[in-house]
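C-alpha cells incoming
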C-alpha cells in the first residue's frame, strides 16, 4: 500500500506529535508499505528522509506557515494520513485529493491564560479558539474519510470532535518497548522514594500543584524526593515556588536528559505523576514510558488520560486538587509491595495494548476498510 503521512513537524523537531508520526511511520514500514512523509523544513538544515516544504514559524513551536502546499494535488497515494493540529497539511489534502484521507486528531486547541511572562486576555484566547474551529478544524474533519482519536472519552467531550463521532476510530498512542528494554538491560538501578515528573515545564502541565503536594508527602514519607525532568518557560517560577516552600533539598530539576538518563529516571522512581489539567493533554505518552519501566503512575482524571490508568497500574486524582494528589502519592510510595504489583500490571498493559506494532496493525486495518 502506498501511504503519505503529513505532519507540520517531524523529528529532530521535538514534540509528542512529531514522535508519534515517526514511530507510526517506522511501524508501518515494517509491514512492507510504501510510505513517504510530508513535513516542513523546520528546523532548518536538519536531515530526515522526508519531503520537505519551506516554512516560517508565525508563533514558535506551534504555528508554521508552510509554502507550496498546492503541490500536494500532484502527489498520488492509496491513503493520505495527516496529523493535526496544526491543520495546514490536512486542509491542503482536502482541497487537492479525492483519495481516502485519514486525520489523526491529536488534541483540541486551547489558548493558555499565560505564555511565559505574557498574559493572554481571555477574550482573545476565546476568539482564536473559535476562529480555529470554524475556519480549520471543522472544515478538515468534515471532508476527511476517517478520524483517529486516542481515547473515547476525549472525543465525546471535545467541543469539535463530538460532531463527528461516527467518523472516529479509537487507536491509542504507542511506545517502542524494545528501545526501553535495550537500555534497561545496561543499567543497574535500585528504586528509591522518588516522585517523578517528565515533560515540558509549561503552565498546563500543572507542575506547581505537584510541588505544592510535596510538603504533605514529606510529613508521611520524610525520605521522599521530587525529580523534575524537562525544560520550559515555567522553570524559573517553579524554582521560586520550591524556594518559597523550603523544598530546595527535596526537589531536583534535571533539565533535558538523553534517553539513557531518562530511562534511568523512570527506573529509580517509585511513582510517576502527570498533573496536567487541560485538553492539551489528551493521552500522556510519558505514562506509557513509566509503565514500560514498571513504575506505577498517578494522573489527573481528565478525558483521554484516564483511559490509560486502571486500579491495577495507578491512581487518578481530581485536576488541581493538591490534597488528593498528595494522598495518592503517599498511598503508593509508602507501600513497596504496591509499587511492585502496580509496576508489573503497567508493564503487562503496555505490552498487550500500546506496542507500536499493535498500533500499526490497527491503523492498517482502518486503511484497508476505506
Amino acid at each position: 500500500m502506498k501511504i503519505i503521512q503529513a505532519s507540520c513537524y517531524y523529528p529532530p523537531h521535538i514534540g509528542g506529535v512529531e514522535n508519534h508520526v515517526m514511530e507510526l511511520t517506522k511501524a508501518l514500514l515494517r509491514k512492507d508499505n510504501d510510505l513517504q512523509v510530508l513535513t516542513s523544513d523546520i528546523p532548518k538544515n536538519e536531515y530526515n528522509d522526508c519531503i520537505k516544504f519551506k516554512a516560517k514559524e508565525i508563533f514558535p513551536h506551534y504555528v508554521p506557515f508552510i509554502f507550496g502546499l498546492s503541490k500536494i494535488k500532484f502527489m498520488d497515494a492509496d491513503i493520505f494520513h495527516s496529523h493535526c493540529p496544526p491543520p495546514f497539511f490536512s486542509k491542503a489534502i482536502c482541497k487537492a485529493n479525492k483519495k481516502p484521507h485519514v486525520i489523526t486528531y491529536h488534541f483540541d486547541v486551547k489558548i493558555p491564560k499565560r505564555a511565559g511572562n505574557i498574559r493572554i486576555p481571555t477574550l482573545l484566547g476565546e476568539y482564536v479558539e473559535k476562529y480555529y474551529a470554524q475556519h480549520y478544524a471543522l472544515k478538515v474533519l468534515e471532508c476527511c474519510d476517517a478520524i483517529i482519536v486516542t481515547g473515547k472519552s476525549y472525543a465525546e467531550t471535545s467541543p469539535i470532535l463530538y460532531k463527528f463521532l461516527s467518523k472516529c476510530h479509537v487507536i491509542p498512542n504507542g511506545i517502542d518497548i524494545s528501545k526501553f528494554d535495550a537500555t534497561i538491560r545496561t543499567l543497574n538501578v535500585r528504586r528509591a522514594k522518588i516522585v517523578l515528573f517528565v515533560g515540558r515545564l509549561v503552565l498546563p502541565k500543572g507542575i506547581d500543584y505537584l510541588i505544592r503536594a510535596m510538603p504533605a508527602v514529606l510529613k508521611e514519607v520524610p525520605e521522599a524526593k521530587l525529580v523534575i525532568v524537562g525544560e520550559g518557560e515555567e522553570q524559573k517560577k517553579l524554582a521560586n515556588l520550591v524556594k518559597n516552600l523550603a523544598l530546595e533539598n527535596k526537589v531536583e530539576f534535571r533539565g533535558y536528559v538523553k534517553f539513557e538518563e531518562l530511562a534511568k529516571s523512570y527506573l529509580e522512581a517509585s511513582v510517576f505523576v502527570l498533573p496536567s489539567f487541560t485538553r492539551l493533554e489528551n493521552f500522556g505518552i510519558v505514562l506509557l514510558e513509566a509503565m514500560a519501566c514498571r513504575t506505577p503512575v498517578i494522573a489527573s482524571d481528565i478525558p483521554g488520560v484516564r483511559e490509560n490508568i486502571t486500579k491495577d497500574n495507578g491512581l487518578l486524582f481530581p485536576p488541581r486538587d493538591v490534597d488528593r494528589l498528595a494522598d495518592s502519592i503517599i498511598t503508593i510510595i509508602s507501600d513497596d509491595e504496591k509499587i511492585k504489583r502496580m509496576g508489573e500490571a503497567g508493564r503487562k498493559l503496555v505490552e498487550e495494548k500500546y506496542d507500536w506494532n499493535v498500533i500499526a496493525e490497527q491503523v492498517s486495518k482502518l486503511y484497508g476498510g476505506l
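note: Residues 122-143 form the longest helix (22 residues).
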